[in-house]
Design a protein that fits this description.
The complex is a heterodimer of chains A (204) and B (178). With 204 residues, chain A is mainly alpha-helical. Helices cover 70% and strands 0% of the residues of chain A.
Amino acid sequence: MSVPSPIPGPAEPSTPTSLPSATLPEQPQPTLTELFIAFATISLSGFGGVLAWSRRMLVEERKWLTAEQFNETYALCSFLPGGNILNFSVIFGARFRGVGGSIAAAGGLMGPPLLLVLIIAGIYAHYGDLPLLRRALTGVASAAAGLMAATVAKMARPLFRNRAVIGPLIAFVTFAAIGVMRWPLPLVLAVIVPASIAAAMVRR
Amino acid sequence: MNSGGGGTLLTLAGFFGVLSLFAIGGGNSAVPEMYRFAVDVQHWLSDRQFADSFALAQLTPGPNIIIVTLIGFHVAGVLGALVATLAMCGPPAVFAYFVGGASDRFKGKTWHAVLSRALVPVTIGLIAASAAVVTSTAGYNWMSLAITVGTALMAYFVRVHPLWLFAAAAVIGMSGLL
């Protein structure tokens, strides 16, 4: 793989040809302010996962992306390290407005929840010891663990197709190393990711 | 809240900066590593404070990665919150910027499919580990387990907004059954 040059094209929004998967002429081009507001809205609407909201906003309401473009970009983001939606905002912003677009979109995504959570942290610092609040938070944490378990179950279903062994095995070893043995994440990934990639290439 | 000297801020930035590049599959898959470092290694937070931060992050709209902001706030106040958040978001953002520009040229190549097949099982294992770590924190009892199992079943079999599940869990918690 050759070294990628930074964002070919999209820094100049007047060249829609830089989006090969067809930026249709009628697709509107968001400004920096519109990018910020759109991602701030997505962020503040998104409890427990912002995927559905981002799709609704970007594809259905604003029509800045086609459904195919959305899927392709999102698939790419899920391979990249860090939060999927953060990566999405960076790549999406860059396609229309270059570095400034990335900053506007990511700033819209992270800024409002950051302010909100700081207010919540201040309240918690004062009232965190109240038994009522403590019990409510324990309930929420328990529910969130259940949500993650459901996500795992949904994601794992395709793994068991065709009597595959490697995929479930890799998932289980990762779980045991991190969740049971509590080994450091970078060490575990340094071993398991190359092994998993090798296994995936063999199966091809 | 600890007093946050420059050394503490550097440790925050270094830890989350490195962790950010290992967070495959988003914020929730990095929860065990945050727990290991912030509670077990650095003693920045108590076990209980970490569990509470996790719950508060889930209750805040926006990306779940916002738990990093809360950990930073515990360690070094508002400055710590900003340093931790920037460290967790900056490196992946720069990475995404460069890869995103290149991706159009590599689209449809087989490495895309290979990476997907390789990373999805790892992500599944990481999220499962996060659930395990959260359920092993202090204050987690048989009633919490009932909430976890009930929420998992609801989320898996019924299409229901997570906020309703959180609200129900908070009310059950407050009712004193926990």
